[in-house]
Specification:
Blueprint: E1 2-6, E2 15-25, E3 28-39, H1 54-61, E4 70-73, E5 75-78, E6 85-86, H2 92-98, H3 110-113, H4 120-131, H5 136-149, H6 155-158, H7 168-180
Helix pairs in contact: 4-5, 4-7, 5-7
Length: 181
């Protein structure tokens, strides 16, 4: 598999820019000639038929493709510390810190993305603890607030539920809360 992103100009003051995206697996192109810019505060939803390359594109943006994937080109992210960064050139540790704190992906199927043996509030708090130096109780409070922000009713109680105890829509909201906290 290979993915290439080419950019001729830096992203706006804060955002993501990708031009001429190309992804192939065993010679078959999954994505061809994709260009977009996401400005600060904007949200981009990728819509398309099954197999059209939505997941490959998203995973390439946040560098979560399988290790054997060959990635080249440029994805510019402006909004980190200082000027624009090429996401493909960031050291792994810097990318890990950026992923989940400044840029995130909400996966299609929350039941496979959520840990079935861990309470949903703990999973959101774990994401907070991975990126911010806060106490466990502060992370828990932020997790509950995140659940309230995405309109999960009775968030304090629901935070103690396991994924299988929530509806599909509620699980999706948990994933959104995890991305925005």
């Amino acid at each position: 598999m290979s993915v290439a992103f080419q950019s001729k100009r830096a992203a706006s003051k804060s955002g993501v820019e990708s031009n001429s995206a190309l992804a192939s697996s065993e010679g078959a192109f999954a994505v061809r000639d994709l260009s977009f810019t996401i400005a600060r505060g904007e949200v981009l939803g990728l819509v398309g038929e099954s197999g059209s390359g939505k997941s490959v594109t998203s995973l390439a943006l946040i560098r979560l493709l399988p290790y054997q994937a060959r990635v080249s080109g440029e994805i510019i992210f402006a909004g980190g510390n200082g000027g624009p960064d090429s996401l493909l050139e960031l050291p792994d540790e810097n990318m890990r810190l950026l992923r989940g704190s400044r840029i995130a992906m909400i996966f299609q199927e929350p039941m496979t993305a959520l840990n079935p043996v861990m309470r949903v509030g703990d999973q959101i708090a774990e994401a907070i603890l991975a990126h911010d130096q806060v106490s466990k109780s502060e992370a828990w409070q932020r997790a509950v607030e995140g659940m309230k922000d995405v309109a999960i009713p009775d968030a304090e109680r629901r935070a103690r539920d396991y994924p299988h105890q929530l509806s599909g829509g509620m699980r999706q909201r948990v994933m959104i809360a995890m991305a925005i906290v």
